[in-house]
Write a structure and sequence with these properties.
Number of helices: 15
Strand order of the largest sheet: 1-18-15-14-3-9-10-13-11-12
Strand content: 5-15%
Bound molecules: magnesium ion
CATH superfamily of the largest domain: HAD superfamily/HAD-like
Structural class: alpha/beta
CATH topology of the largest domain: Rossmann fold
């Protein structure tokens, strides 16, 4: 395919963790929210924040909470929430806490170390900020923690109890329609469709692949959101439903991959469900179901399906781990981050040089220190044996060497300060509070480890598929062992 020969920018590329031959993929499945459907995240998250604050106040929390405002750029995905202490953590792949906040106050090194790194903690006790939906939820938690710090006694609950209420109110806002109805009424405000989506899907269809939609949203919401993204975009496929051989709503992922729920058929006119038996018909809408029945009815093996989603837990871990579907993860943040990372490449080079300088300096300093220690020993011995001239000579040399060591230590300190400031500056450019999504300093973040472990391929947006042939063999390049280089 000629497009592949064009040099793609990083944010247009698809990255490979595990080799994947698209030639043996017969069906492509898609999650909806943040995969097929792009949100204006700020508008949507602010809406979820407001609706949830309302529920707090209605249930007896102080009215003052209504003054809290949503701050869209404070959080990133991949963080952990310590519900007991009201803290937010960014950890590396070894679960070492590198950055921690209490509300919006940053913990200093000692505090952080005392709480988290002096003994190993269990990451499973913390809530992982995996989805974009979780961002507004956790942002509200942060604001309430700050409120409780500034107004002691006004909320007579523990951080943990507040978080449990928060979960309850968020779920309620999703169930009672206060969020979804508002989105359906103002799709232009909350959604920002990818203009390349239809073209991307058509390329796969023309290559003979079967497409299906698998979402946890209900039919009414799915119909509105997908209609907004795809209706009337293609002359041959006038309705969004024409793109998909099978549409499954209310799938209850990750339960879909583990359970044995039956399929129901949705009657679109009435939005009612009726029990379904037999094959899944093209053009029909189904609700619920489970993966084993789905594969049986469609006649696919697990590894003939590529599932594309944005939720590492709900979409990717279960589908790959339990039924061996091949997986593609959409990591929307990379769109913006990869561009910034490319721009900050000269800075990265400077940082690397500083690192090399430090290593060389440290090595020279150690050689010097051992020489000083040796001289000292020899001088002692010479004194014992009455060779005072030799002892004096060695001590004089040591004075010189010690002055040199001191000046090298100062040089090392300056170098470290400059290195720290270069690294901080670069990280702040990428995200002012938390730095890179996939890294903490030079270590890989826990989020990066999960992406590597569970996604066969990953990219910043689904429509990047259009830059590659539908029969492309994606080769992993990360299988290198330390002794290969
Ligand atoms: Mg999603």
């Amino acid at each position: 395919m000629s497009t592949e020969r064009i040099k793609l920018r990083k944010w247009q590329r698809i990255f490979v963790n595990r080799s994947l031959n698209m030639g043996s993929i017969r069906a492509l499945g898609f999650d909806m929210d943040h995969t097929l459907a792009h949100y204006n995240r700020e508008a949507f998250e602010a809406l979820a924040f407001r609706e949830t604050v309302r529920k707090f106040v209605l249930s007896g929390y102080p009215r003052e909470l209504e003054k809290l405002t949503f701050k869209p750029h404070f959080l990133i995905r991949g963080l952990l929430v310590d519900r007991e202490r009201g803290n937010l953590l960014k950890v590396d792949g070894h679960k070492y806490v590198k950055i921690a906040f209490h509300g919006r106050r940053k913990l200093d090194k000692e505090e952080r170390h005392k709480l988290y790194n002096s003994e190993s903690f269990k990451a499973q006790e913390f809530v992982s900020v995996d989805t974009f939906f979780a961002l507004s939820e956790v942002q509200l938690f942060v604001e309430i923690v700050d409120y409780m710090e500034a107004n002691p006694g006004k909320i007579k609950k523990s951080y943990r109890e507040v978080y449990d209420d928060l979960r309850k109110f968020i779920d309620l806002s999703h169930q009672d329609g206060s969020i979804k109805n508002e989105v359906i009424r103002n799709l232009d405000r909350y959604m920002s469709p990818d203009k390349q989506l239809a073209k991307t899907l058509l390329m796969q269809i023309e290559a003979g692949k079967s497409l299906f939609l698998l979402t946890n949203s209900n039919y009414e919401y799915t119909n509105a959101v997908m209609g907004h993204a795809l209706d009337g975009v293609s002359a041959d496929f006038p309705s969004w439903r024409d793109f998909f051989d099978v549409v499954i709503v209310g799938a209850g992922k990750p339960g879909f991959f583990m359970g044995s729920q039956p399929f129901y058929q949705v009657i679109p006119e009435s939005n009612l469900l009726k029990p379904h038996d037999g094959p899944l018909a093209k053009g029909a809408i189904y609700h619920g179901g489970n993966v084993r029945l789905f594969q049986k009815l469609m006649g696919y093996r697990g590894d003939e399906i590529l599932y594309v989603g944005d939720h590492i837990y709900g979409d990717i871990i279960r589908s790959k781990g339990i039924v061996n579907w091949r997986t593609m993860l959409v990591v929307e943040e990379l769109d913006h981050e990869l561009e910034l990372l490319e721009k900050s490449r000269p800075e990265l080079e400077r940082i690397k040089t500083r690192f090399e300088d430090r290593e060389a300096l440290e090595e020279r300093l150690q050689i010097l220190r051992s020489k000083i220690a040796n001289n000292y020993r020899h001088a002692e011995k010479a004194t014992e044996h009455g060779d005072l001239r030799k002892a004096k000579h060695l001590r004089r040399e040591n004075d010189k060497l010690t002055r040199k060591a001191l000046s090298m230590e100062r040089e090392l300190e300056t170098n470290d300060l400059e290195l720290r400031s270069l690294m901080d500056h670069r990280e702040r450019k990428i995200h002012p509070v938390w730095g890179e999504l996939m890294r903490v300093g030079f270590e890989r973040s826990r989020f990066a480890d999960q992406v590597e472990d569970y996604a066969c391929i990953y990219t910043s947006r689904l429509s990047n598929l259009r830059f590659y042939s539908p029969f492309k063999r994606y080769h992993a390049t990360t299988d290198a062992l330390p002794h290969d280089s």
